[in-house]
Specification:
heterodimer, A: alpha/beta, ten-stranded mixed beta sheet, two-stranded antiparallel ribbon, 11 helices, 12 strands, B: about 375 residues, alpha/beta, Isocitrate_DH_NAD (chain A), IsoCit/isopropylmalate_DH_CS (chain A), IsoPropMal-DH-like_dom (chain A), magnesium (chain A)
């Protein structure tokens, strides 16, 4: 009974925000930002551990490239804010809502009860419905896979991670997986829109609808509906076990992947593993009303914090994603090439890539390449 | 009695001396009457199924293995597995099957899943290992994925709450988690495996996967000689792609097991070569290990280029299960020799041979 009311509440809230919202939520990137002369304010969460160092690195590179962004920094507080039920303050969330754009470093969730996890807070409060992770092989950093060039788009709000579990009787537990038409349509729209704006040719929907016929079947139906509106993009459906196998055998077969929550989690981490791990993977969360929060998905690495050894690549590439979302494509391309060239050259690499440079040396090399 | 066994041993050693390129260091002592032929239910299935099961039949003939097949026609579009097939499997206790095609999004529930639930085949086993002579991107892979086969996300309990909102129930019970954990540790113990890893997502699904982990931990305590650790499923997939040599035996609930098994099969050489099977307390069904591609594409069926290696290795596992270890050894050696020579390989392994050519090569290599 409570679950049905939660879903109903969510539907009503989203419906009302669609009606009252000033921005068209079906074209998420339709907000026109100011030209490159007037500065844009963006929120930055440096995070914990190595967070502040790599955030510094990002700021340096962006200033050298002449990116017109003013950073508003926010930190995780040490006490629980009652308005948000977590360690993130209301001000931080308001800042992201206002600026519509943010960059987040790694945050360590404090252990304990009585508060929501930081990622969950961000996701729920900002209504971040899609997680986008481009995975491409970095030239110059050799892994077993050289020809990876794909993007995983994962539905971020429902599915298996709804968190609705209960014990039926002793020893029997039920967990609910929820798929709604609205959320599936939303993420499918974003996936096709992304494919179109980035010149991608194929979108693959990953599912297990042969077993979970109604839930994944609904997801597929929504994807098919959206696919009809984009006839120039090839659309295909792949069962998840086939997908896993094809990814490890021949990742060049895939272009854009769109998936529900759980499969997305696993596949996006699998793809990150193909190109070199979470230390090199950028990621961006898209929310309603054109909110974009780019983040580095690796951990806060407390053991190397403060020692100038961290690799800022993930946060830098996430920053590039943020710039592309802001349509500052020129600077995004500049910074992106600089990063790729620095890593490809191989002279300056941090320890996790097998080199001996410090964070500052690596950052300086990137700035020199600009 | 001892004189008979002595003659038997003499015969076996004599055979060893004549085949000079293989020294047999193990002799199996059968019980009297073990050589009488056993019946095995055979379900050719859909797509490449009939091709590869035919391959097994041919090889079994050539080896004069003491089994005979009772063939039944089952197709994925049927709404239920026919009663006579179930009767046959219950009588014979062992079945070999090709893939059954499950229509996507249709009203028919998967026959593969139905079979497993009715016979209570609660453990699905896939052995993913590097075959010598087959080049892959990853080395030193030898992973056994043991997957809970009856509940979890594949419970099939779905309903539409209101139009546009669908719910699916994932059910985890202590009973099923315990027995799969017990099976995994028992397997590791009996096969001299050193590590069992439990794959889960208990940081998000705290109650469901938490219950699974609890059961695994309890069973782990009873096997102090086997190392036990836990890994979250997304990290697991990443590690599988980066460093697969760290995994040994993996025990997982239903859905994660599907993904992990297919990923492991993919890194170790592809689903065309990985053996596997489903086992329950009373019955066992052997089929191609990984579920991806077990029906195959139409093109492969038309050109007869399906890879029979997976089903051949699974039938070797079946022979051991039926307690014909010597035949199993011969079959496995022949198959591995064909792969390592590299002359006869089907398309998924990078060659151009047809199924029949591979079968002929295997039969030629049988001792």
């Amino acid at each position: 009974m409570t679950m049905a009311t939660t879903i109903a509440k969510r539907l009503i809230r989203n419906r009302s925000s669609q009606i009252l919202g000033t921005l068209n939520s079906t074209s998420p990137a339709s907000r026109t930002f100011c030209s490159s002369t007037t500065p844009i304010t963006a929120t930055m969460f440096p995070g914990d551990g190595i967070g502040p160092e790599i955030a510094e690195s990002v700021k340096q590179v962006f200033t050298t490239a002449g990116v017109p962004i003013n950073w508003e920094e926010h930190y995780v507080s040490t006490e629980i804010d009652p308005r948000t039920q977590s360690f993130l303050t209301w001000e931080s969330l308001e800042s992201v809502r206002r600026n519509k754009v943010g960059l987040k470093g790694p945050m360590a969730t404090p252990i304990g009860k009585g508060h929501r996890s930081l990622n969950l807070t961000l996701r729920k409060e900002l209504n971040l419905y899609a997680n986008v992770r481009p995975c491409y092989s970095l030239p110059g950093y050799k892994t077993r896979y050289d020809d990876v060039n794909l993007i995983t788009i994962r539905e971020n709000t429902e599915g298996e991670y709804s968190g609705l579990e209960h014990q039926v009787v002793r020893g029997v537990v039920e967990s609910l997986k929820i798929i709604t038409r609205q959320a599936s349509l939303r993420v499918a729209e974003y996936a096709f829109h992304y494919a179109k704006t980035h010149g991608r040719e194929r979108v693959s929907a990953i599912h297990k609808a042969n077993i979970m016929q109604k839930t994944d079947g609904l997801f597929l139906k929504c994807c098919r509906e959206v696919a009809e509106k984009y006839p120039e993009i090839t659309y295909e459906e792949v069962v998840i076990d086939n997908c896993c196998m094809m990814l490890v055998k021949n990742p060049a077969l895939f272009d854009v992947l769109v998936m529900p929550n759980l499969y997305g989690d696993i596949i996006s981490d699998l793809c990150a593993g193909l190109v070199g791990g979470l230390g090199l993977t950028p990621s961006c969360n898209i929310g309603e009303d054109g909110v974009a929060l780019a983040e580095a998905v690796h951990g806060s690495a407390p053991d190397i914090a403060g020692k100038n050894l961290a690799n800022p690549t993930a946060l830098l590439l996430s920053g590039v994603m943020m710039l592309r979302h802001l349509k500052l494509n020129e600077q995004a391309e500049q910074i992106h090439s600089a990063i790729i060239n620095t890593i490809a050259e191989g002279k300056y690499r941090t320890a996790d890539l097998g080199g001996t440079s410090t964070t500052t040396e690596f950052t300086k090399a990137i700035c020199d390449h600009l | 009695m001892s004189r008979r066994s002595l003659t038997l041993l003499k015969n076996l050693t004599r055979n060893t001396n004549t085949s000079c390129n293989q020294t047999r260091s193990v002799t199996y002592m059968p019980r009297p009457g073990d050589g009488s032929p056993r019946a095995v239910t055979l379900i050719p299935g859909d797509g490449i199924g009939p091709l590869v099961t035919n391959a097994v039949e041919q090889v079994m003939e050539a080896m004069h293995a003491p089994i005979y097949f009772e063939k039944y026609d089952v197709h994925g579009e049927m709404s239920r597995v026919p009663a006579e097939v179930m009767e046959s499997i219950r009588k014979n206790k062992v079945c070999l099957k090709g893939g059954l095609k499950t229509p996507v999004g249709g009203g028919v529930s998967s026959l593969n899943v139905q079979l497993r639930k009715e016979l209570d085949l609660f453990a699905s086993l896939v052995n993913c290992f590097n075959l010598p002579g087959l080049p892959t991107r990853h080395e030193n892979v030898d992973i056994v994925v043991i997957r809970e086969n009856t509940e979890g996300e594949y419970a099939g309990l779905e309903h539409e709450v209101v139009p546009g909102v669908v719910e699916s129930l994932k059910v985890i019970t202590k009973f099923c988690s315990e027995r799969i954990a017990k099976y995994a540790f028992e397997y590791a113990y009996l096969n001299n495996r050193k590590k069992v890893t439990a794959v889960h997502k208990a940081n998000i699904m705290k109650l469901a996967d938490g219950l699974f982990l609890e059961s695994c931990r309890e069973v782990a305590k009873k096997y102090p000689g086997i190392t036990y650790n836990e890994i979250i499923v997304d990290n697991c997939c990443m590690q599988l792609v980066a460093k697969p040599e760290q995994f040994d035996v993996m025990v997982t609930p239903n859905l994660y097991g599907n993904l992990v098994a297919n990923t492991a099969a993919g890194i170790a050489g592809g689903t065309g070569v990985m053996p596997g099977g489903n086992v329950g307390a009373d019955h066992a069904v052997f089929e191609q290990g990984a579920s991806a591609g077990n029906v195959g594409k139409d093109k492969i069926v038309r050109e007869n280029k399906a890879n029979p290696v997976a089903l051949l290795l699974s039938s070797a596992m079946m022979l051991r299960h039926l307690q014909f270890p010597s035949f199993a050894d011969r079959l496995e050696t022949a198959v591995k020799r064909v792969i390592s020579e590299g002359k006869c390989r089907t398309k998924d392994l990078g060659g151009q041979s047809t199924t029949q050519q591979v079968v002929d090569a295997v039969i030629a290599n049988l001792e």
